[in-house]
Structures are given as structure tokens and as C-alpha cells.
């Protein structure tokens, strides 16, 4: 069995790769370039995301976490769906440049919140200090 730390490292690495490729593709789409929607670019994104999902599912199983018992995980899974939808709009579904820009920014904001949710193990993510009143 692979050690937890190795799987977590793979998960973190693929998060970085996935977000980096999304940003590169999004910028390419905004610049009117064709490569972001080519088969190799799309398949690379899918391949990275499959590894990311497998690593995440493995961590989930090893940690014996369940979305209904761990609200932060449930929130993260919901945010993942929203991130995919916003990213899809940013790359191909939005009909205007403004729509693509706004969708991409929303996708990145959701991704940032997912990171905060995962690191702090709380659905509020980076907003946790405001929710709990920490620092007041």
C-alpha cells in the first residue's frame, strides 16, 4: 500500500498542474488562440484530473472521511462541481469575452476557496476567521 504522504503529494502536485493548465488554456482562449481546445490540450487536462480525482478518492478512503460526517469535505465536493461548471463556461460555453473573463475569475475564486476548505477542514475555508470571529 502506498503511504499516505506520497498520495497526498501526488494530490497536491496534480492540483497545481490542473490549475496551471486551466489558467494557460483560459488565457489562450481569451487571446483567441486555437490550441487550448485542441484534442491534446483537452486530453492532457482530463488525464491530470483523473490522477487528481484518484488521489483524492484514495485520501478520502484512507482518512475514512464521509461528506455527511465531515462538512468540509461535502463543501469541497460541491465546490468541485461549481468549479467544473465555471471552468467550462470560461473555456467554451460563454458567448462573449466578458463572459469568459468573468467565468474564469469565478472558477479561480472557487478553486481558491476549495484550497482554503481543504487546508482548514472547514466549509468556510479562508473566510473561517470572519465566521468564527477570530482576531476580534
The rough form would be described as globular
Poorly predicted ranges:
none
Radius of gyration: 16 Å
The proportion of residues in beta strands is: under 5%
Oligomer: single chain
Mean pLDDT: 93
What proportion of the residues is helical, as a percent range?
over 70%
Whole-Å distance between the termini? Answer: 45 Å
Structural class: mainly alpha
> How many separate helices?
5
Largest sheet: none
Q: Tally of extended strands?
A: 0
SSE succession: HHHHH
Features:
5 helices, mainly alpha, about 75% helix, about 140 residues
What's the arrangement of secondary structure elements?
Elements: H1 4-30, H2 39-62, H3 71-93, H4 97-120, H5 128-132
Describe it.
The protein is mostly helical and 136 residues long. Helix content is 76%, strand content 0%. It has helices at 4-30, 39-62, 71-93, 97-120, 128-132. Helix 1 (4-30) runs antiparallel to helix 2 and helix 3 (71-93) packs antiparallel against helix 4 (97-120). The chain is globular, with a radius of gyration of 16 Å.
Summary of the model, kept short:
By secondary structure, the protein is mainly alpha-helical. It is built from five helices and no strands.
